[in-house]
Amino acid sequence: MLTNRLTRLTTALADQALDAVVIVPGANLRYLLNVSFHPSKRLTLALFSAAGGRPRIVLPALELGGVRAQLGDIAHFYPWTDAAGPTTELLEAVGQVFRGRRARIAVEHTVMRVMELRALENAGRQLGVELDIVDATPLLAQMRMVKDADEQAAMAEAARIVEQALRNTIAQIKPGVTERQLSHICTQEIMAAGAEGESFENLIASGPNSANPHHNVSDRAFQPGDLIVLDCGAVYRGYASDITRTVALAEPTPEARHIYQTVLAANTAARNFVRPGVTGEQIDRAARNVIAAAGYGDFFLHRTGHGLGLEINPCHEPPDLVAGSNVPFAVGTTFTIEPGIYIEGVGGVRIEDDVVITEAGCQSFTTFDRDLMIVPV
Ligand code: ZN
Ligand code: ZN
Known about the structure:
Blueprint lengths: L1 H14 L4 E4 L3 H7 L11 E5 L6 E5 H11 L4 E5 L6 H11 L4 E6 L6 H14 L2 E6 L1 H9 L3 H22 L8 H14 L4 E2 L4 E4 L20 E6 L1 E3 L2 E2 L2 E7 L4 H20 L6 H14 L11 E3 L9 E5 L12 E4 L2 E4 L3 E4 L2 E6 L2 E4 L8 E3 L2
Helix pairs in contact: 4-5, 7-8, 9-10
Bound molecules: zinc ion (2 copies).
């Protein structure tokens, strides 16, 4: 599995006339080497050469034991001590990768810090190599968008965990409980169900607050007649789930019911539209058409979905399901489908599922009941 990813990386580097890519701890490194580091101020870099071969990892000596236990001999290690500093080891590693007078290297523009960039630039200067530095983000995003069987299994488990937690959380809804209390309950249930963590801070929006798709949890207490939006996710083996269900506390108004049925129809239409070769724009339109036909077009305030995998917070991974997203999706692409309607003074509904494109069309990792659940008072 990892060898396969490294081979694909080497090919991608060659295709783009890059000499190397330099990765810092984070989702990309986890993807390429299945290794996680403690967040640290100490210089840590992994260099992957277009020539292939084992990656070279410059790291604090105190991390060596833990990292080697995870990686074995898949990489060359260049450990540096606090007393000596990283310069010598970095030069040693970089000298093996940047050969010749010029090197075209890719780094993660949104992840790498100035500290790491300066260290690389200094190393290049000392070695007499002129560096041409480009963004590695598109290349890695492209690789990560299609998930292999192992990744899909982790995502299915992340969905199973969050659904168990969601069931237990909904069971604790009653009049007088506040959004904040239910949010804490949701966090505990996610951890109790076996998650490594929450994918993001869960969102509980009730009554009038449900009309805000990005509501910040408040101390509002639930009342009969409320719509309650619950949006939460679990992390399992680094992979995230992300689910939203909207429930009613006691019988909702006829309008709330109508909104719910419209969002459900949009969610269903979008999922039914998913197949190999479809674009994000097409799926977005499938959901949007249903909502517009019901007269709520102006109240669907966001894109239909976003990519899902190792990263969800603070940035979603590609693709986006929105107008202008015109790259055909391949089998193995994973994303959310989450249409919603939000009307101030009335309330809001969102129904969100996590899906993967299969040869046959679409498989949903989330299987939680989508019909309107009415919590009795
Ligand atoms: Zn969500
Ligand atoms: Zn989402």
